[in-house]
Amino acid sequence: MEFKKRILVTGGAGFIGSHLVRLLLEKYPEYLIVNFDKLTYAGNLENLKDIEHKSNYRFVKGDITDVEAVKNAFNEYNISDVIHLAAESHVDRSIEGPMDFVMTNVVGTVNLLQCARDHWKGGKDHIFHHVSTDEVYGSLGETGLFMETTPYDPRSPYSASKASSDHFVQAFYHTYGLPIKMSNCSNNYGSHQFPEKLIPLMINNIVNEKPLPVYGTGANIRDWLWVVDHAIAIDEIFHKGRLGESYNVGGLNEWTNLDLVHYLCDLMDKKLGRSEGASRQLITFVTDRKGHDMRYAIDASKIEKELGWKPSVTFEQGLDLTVDWYLNNQDWIDSITSGEYATYYRNMYEER
Ligand code: NAD
Ligand code: TYD
User: Domain 190-222+254-296+313-344: which topology?
Assistant: First the structure.
């Protein structure tokens, strides 16, 4: 079969990547989807078990910093487009060790850009969609929202590496005319998220009646979006967004960390048949994250006006689905919270 597009999705075995791969495979049987992933601690082929048999799906185990591996994938599948999600994605890990973030997020992105440029040879019928974060804009005070025009002001090693990769993507557009698009999204939540991130970590600890580590006073604010709505936004931008443009994606859904943890405790007490207030007793205030950004919040009016995108579920609906997924997939959690992660988590927690 001649495929209409042959899309290289990097990081497709991760949290957001696996949701995007599933959406693309189901919606576009006429596209070949090549999932290129190194399978770091955060990548898990179990995330794609339900769709790996599809005839338009291929998996390549590879590192985006490896020039030959990326070139080979472009050649073997005659890649027409890239949607780039592969990254080191956890702020706390970037504080402990920034170099992996520089390698994958910066060097890996530039390598992909180079390979795309070499393979497409100036052709315009291609798209390189770079998936980024709102954290590149820095930290907000009590008011205001991040717009696409907000100056970059990254403050953690993670956000500095993502900001750098964004700049390289724009540089390839302006210097070489590489056909790029970008999206900068707020915090995602949903099924298959590695339980080092706030929401799955809290769900897992509530289930196991372990302490719930809230950094500082819990007053920091994040703007939460259901991962499926992010995947839908990427699909819209990839197909209909303007070349060279970036689009902010967010949920208009700001919560302080403490309010969110309270909400999860109460929701799960009901689902688990525990007495009212039981899980709140597990909350433990721990030493704050170094350089902890105070508030993130997105102005998503550009994508809404230009592409008609808006979140499809409320936070309450999305969280309900998410908690149910974790409760019904305890094996998934158990398989990744043993071994290396268990040691990492214990060390992190003991340090605080
Ligand atoms: P994740 O950590 O769950 O997954 C990352 C994936 O990339 C994993 O499958 C991993 O194996 C793969 N990977 C890492 N290094 C690689 C390398 N050198 N070569 C090939 N593959 C490699 O991350 P996520 O939360 O799904 O985030 C995906 C993307 O979306 C990232 O670029 C992140 O910056 C961005 N983003 C995430 C959020 C969020 O809330 N999680 C919000 C906005 C943007
Ligand atoms: P996180 O999920 O790591 O995402 P990000 O740092 O990229 O926003 O953290 C979300 C918020 O939750 C952030 O303000 C830090 C806080 N947090 C805790 O209070 N306790 C935790 O155990 C974790 C992982 C995060």
Answer: UDP-galactose 4-epimerase; domain 1 (3.90.25)
**Ligand 1 pocket, CB under 6 A:** 10-11, 13-17, 37-40, 42-43, 63-65, 85-89, 104, 108, 131-133, 162, 185, 187-188, 194
- The H helix count followed by the E strand count for the chain is 13, 12
* Whether the Cβ atoms of residue 9 and residue 17 lie closer than 8 Å to each other: yes
Other CB atoms within a 10 A radius of the CB of residue 82 amount to 27
Maximal C-alpha separation, the chain: 64
pLDDT digits (tens, 9 = 90+) for 313-352: 999 999 999 999 999 999 998 888 777 777 776 777 667 6
| CB-CB contact of 303 with 247 (8 Å) | yes
Say which residue the tokens 């390839």 belong to: 172
pTM (global) more than 0.90: yes
Architecture of domain 5-188+224-249: 3-Layer(aba) Sandwich (3.40)
Q: Are residues 184 and 151 in contact, defined by beta-carbon separation less than 8 angstroms?
A: no
Ligand 2 lined by 65 (C-beta under 6 Å) = no
Whether the Cβ atoms of residue 203 and residue 212 lie closer than 8 Å to each other? no
- Tell me the per-residue pLDDT of 216-255, one tens digit each, with 9 for 90 and over: 999 999 999 999 999 999 999 999 999 999 999 998 899 9
255 phi and psi angles, rounded to 5 deg? -135, 140
